[in-house]
Design brief:
Shape: elongated
Distance between the termini: 54 Å
Number of domains: 1
Oligomer: single chain
Number of strands: 2
Order of helices and strands: HEEHH
Helix content: 25-40%
Mean pLDDT: 82
Strand order of the largest sheet: 1-2
Largest sheet: 2 strands, antiparallel
Length: 104
């Protein structure tokens, strides 16, 4: 038992020294802070999501867009010249409710 206690003490000492070398943890994303987020990568290379606020945004505008039969979502990664098109399906509450009754 004494060997185990010594080992654990040494392991805790090593971990304490290693933890001092690690960067600070990235803050948890507050999804309620905004309606949009931008990926940022500072010089240290540790990316994070930054809340983006549009002072002109009105909930009514968002509701009007969501009522359209088709919505275009553009994602710009700025990682070369490649492009792709992705088609999705209706994932509205009604659609999910109707299909929840099916069993596979």
């Amino acid at each position: 038992m004494k060997e185990l206690e010594q080992f654990l003490q040494r392991a805790e000492a090593v971990l304490a020294r290693v933890e001092r070398l690690l960067p600070e943890p990235v803050a948890e994303v507050d999804w309620n802070a905004s309606t949009a987020f931008r990926w940022r990568v500072p010089r240290d290379g540790r990316g994070y999501l930054q809340p983006v606020r549009n002072p002109d945004y009105k909930e009514e505008d968002g509701q009007r867009v969501m009522k359209q039969s088709e919505i275009t979502v553009r994602v710009t990664l700025a990682r070369g010249k490649a492009s792709a098109t992705v088609w999705t399906c209706d994932l509205s509450h009604d659609y999910v409710s109707i299909n929840a009754d099916y069993r596979s």
